[in-house]
Amino acid sequence: MSYQVLARKWRPRTFHELVGQEHVQRALVNALDQGRLHHAYLFTGTRGVGKTTLARILAKCLNCTAGGPGDEAVTSQPCGQCSNCQAIDQGRFVDLLEVDAASRTKVEDTRELLDNVQYAPTQGRYKVYLIDEVHMLSTSSFNALLKTLEEPPPHVKFLLATTDPQKLPPTVLSRCLQFTLKHMPPERIVGHLSMVLEAESVPFEESALWLLGKAAEGSMRDAMSLTDQAIAFGQGEVRHGDVAAMLGTLDHRHVLALIEALAEADAARLLAEVAALAEQGPDFAAVLDDVTAILHRLAIAQMVPDALDNGHGDRDDLLALAARFTAEDIQLYYQIGVQGRGDMGHAPDLRTALEMTLLRMLAFRPQGVPRPAKTPLPMRGESRSESGGESSGGTGSPSGGSSASPAGEENAPAGTEAAAPEPPPAEESARPPEPTAAPEPTPEAVPEPAVEPPESPEAPREAPPQQASTPPWEDMPANPETSAEPAPAEPEESVEAQALEPDEVASSVVSAPDIDSAPPVEVAPEAAQPAPAEVIEEEPPTPAAEPVAADGTLTHDAWLASFDTLGLSGLTRNLAAHCMVEHDDGEVLQLRLDPSQAAMQAEVHVERIREALAGAGVERRLVISDGELPESVETPKQRADRLAAERHAQAVDALKADPHVKQLQQAFGARLVEASVKPSGEHARG
User: Fold this and answer.
1) Whole-number Cα distances in Å, 684 to 261, 519, 561
2) For residue 497, which of 506, 505, 486 has the smallest C-alpha distance?
3) pLDDT digits over 200-210, tens only?
4) φ and ψ at residue 161, rounded to 5 degrees
5) With helix as H, strand as E and coil as C, how does 41-95 read?
6) What is the C-alpha to C-alpha distance for residues 511 and 513, in angstroms, rounded to an integer?
7) Distances in Å between the alpha carbon of 566 and those of 257, 397, 512, 545, 661?
8) What percent of the chain has pLDDT over 70?
């Protein structure tokens, strides 16, 4: 007997042998069991998904005689043994008329076909007309078919199949029950091919079947035909290498090597792998497609490891690779790859486009992170507040985004030499005086301390009247903690302050904990003269807060108080702002980092934090390790967010209580947009 191809040999003969298309199978089985049969069915879908197979199975169900000759014997489970079932399987059943509409498009062919509709079936229970590629019929043929299709004789059933239902007239579609068959996913194709090859006793590799399943592009018939070709190509075996060579696809190991080079952030290795690929003359556009496909699978491996398929037999390798990337890098690389694929048509050549796309992935990685930290799998979304504010915490001040820095404050006295003070704004004069560096027009003005006495005879305070005329939201301090009463000062420091040099006075003021977040206080012209010595002795200046506790160790409270004076910025400040003091024994300072920021940890940032602490008098060997933070402990970032939220809430409440705002709301129906409200201290920072 001649060889029968796999696609025909393994064509399903019952609904239960059908692979996929459960939605169509369920509807037809229920209709057959309940006797609710329509006179016309339309099956649509791409090639090789089972349209003709379904029609033949349905014809077999309508004409199976295992249950008897009457209409009540129609079944959803044909026996396959009766003469009608065997005749349909062998293609010789006289009452099943299969028509190829692509070769019989004329209206004369349709009329000839319909001339025999009125006659009863010869052998079976129903006369079944199976019209394949029905969209190829001419308009006249459709018109000739309409009346018969709408009201056929009771012994006639029409089964129509097409790959392009859009070309069918609406009048035909409205007369049929339409079933749309879906593409076959690669997972289902691989499972069916495995069953077929095991039954055929053909050795195979699962990774080779995945290549066939993806090359089939959703068509089971194409997959079976490619399998026949692979068996012949591999001399009775289906191996990965043979299938890859037959299909002309790239060896998957080269793509994995490119991904490993991205994981190592090794540009030299990346270009070397591309050069090795170029020797094989591949399609570089297809290489980039494979890279983006791997990045997609890596994202799945990070989020839902159990959902990762073993498409190329590389599941374990991808799980290991997924732990070497951050989720942000995967998403960034994928977006760059997709955009680079669209730009390939504008590049000088495809290899250049591939290399530039891969190098762009490395160029846009977050700088300062030489190698990504190991990512635990699976990843789970966290509802921490700092994850949503990383961008603002990386460059802004933890106390609310202040743009002032210690370096800028050190230069402030030099820039104010011989400059006449301006009249203070309403919101500035309403605040109580705070420490600031005194201007130095002459050497005699140097001994003036940074603190203006609350009841100075030379400059009487006008705060109460100005508070009454100033809106309440302008009275709030820039930092609530700095507005608390100052720490007690030691008496002997008031005497030493008189002998300080100008640079020493400025540096002592700059070392105050929150001086960068406090707004500068303007001094009235009559109060700019040096204050008498007896006033200095009565109100000594507030000393700068020390970043260490009484026993010389750095506590977490001291870390919060002195954080703004460390002079950190950029990614280093963002990293430090998410740390808490875990332990300090005087030699080693251990900081615990929020796990969500573990990817940002690098030696360059740790060294900068250590140098900043040493400059503040805390010389330690610094160790930063990531771990879950106690909910009762605030990091500088969390503290800054909380204070900013409190200031914003106070400003909103003050606006809501303001009589002018209420009058606007009542007179014009005004609405307060709370998101646009900024406390007065944040305008200068912005």
Assistant:
1) 46, 8, 22
2) 505
3) 999 999 889 98
4) -135, 140
5) EEEECCCCCCHHHHHHHHHHHHHCCCCCCCHHHCCCCCCCCCHHHHHHHHCCCCC
6) 6
7) 43, 11, 11, 13, 41
8) 72
Residues 6+ apart with CB under 8 A from 355: 270, 271, 274
* H-only helix segments in 91-185: 107-114, 139-150, 170-173
Q: Closest by alpha carbon to 176, among 153, 149, 147?
A: 149
Contact 96, 131 (CB under 8 A): no
CA-based nearest residue to 189, from 309, 314, 51, 303: 309
Tokens of 491: 């008496």
DSSP state letter for 435: -
What is the identity of the amino acid at 437? Answer: A
Burial class from Cβ neighbours inside 10 Å (0-12, 13-18, 19+) for residue 571 reads buried
Q: Over the range 524-541, which residues count as b (16 or more CB within 10 Å of their CB) and which as e?
A: eeeebeebeeebbeebbb
**Confidence (pLDDT) at 115:** 86
Mean pLDDT lowest among 47-56, 266-275, 302-311: 302-311
Displacement of CA 3 from its chain's centroid (Å)? 52
Q: What is the pLDDT of residues 209-235, one digit of tens each?
A: 988 998 998 999 999 999 999 999 999
Q: Which stretch of DSSP H or E encloses residue 34? A: helix 22-34
Q: What is the pLDDT of residues 123-144, one digit of tens each?
A: 889 999 999 999 999 888 999 8
Kindly state the tokens that stand for 320.
């290991």
Q: Does pTM surpass 0.70?
A: no
Q: How many CB atoms lie within 10 A of CB 485?
A: 6
42-to-31, 339, 473, 547, 667 alpha-carbon distances in Å = 15, 40, 71, 80, 66
Concatenate the DSSP letters of all residues of 258-287 into one string: HHHHHHHT-HHHHHHHHHHHHTT---HHHH
Helix (H/G/I), strand (E/B), else coil: 142: helix
User: What would the two tokens of residue 253 be?
Assistant: 């190991």
What is the C-alpha separation between 489 and 450, in angstroms, rounded?
A: 14
ω into 543 cis (within 30 of 0): no
Distances, alpha carbon 78 to alpha carbons 51, 123, 138, in Å: 18, 16, 35
Round to whole Å and give the CA distance between 75 and 162: 26
Choose among 102, 101, 60, 56: nearest CA to 82: 60
Pairing, β 127-132 against β 96-100: parallel
Q: How far apart are CA 93 and CA 82, in angstroms?
A: 12
- Rounded-to-integer distance, Cα 680 and Cα 686, Å: 11
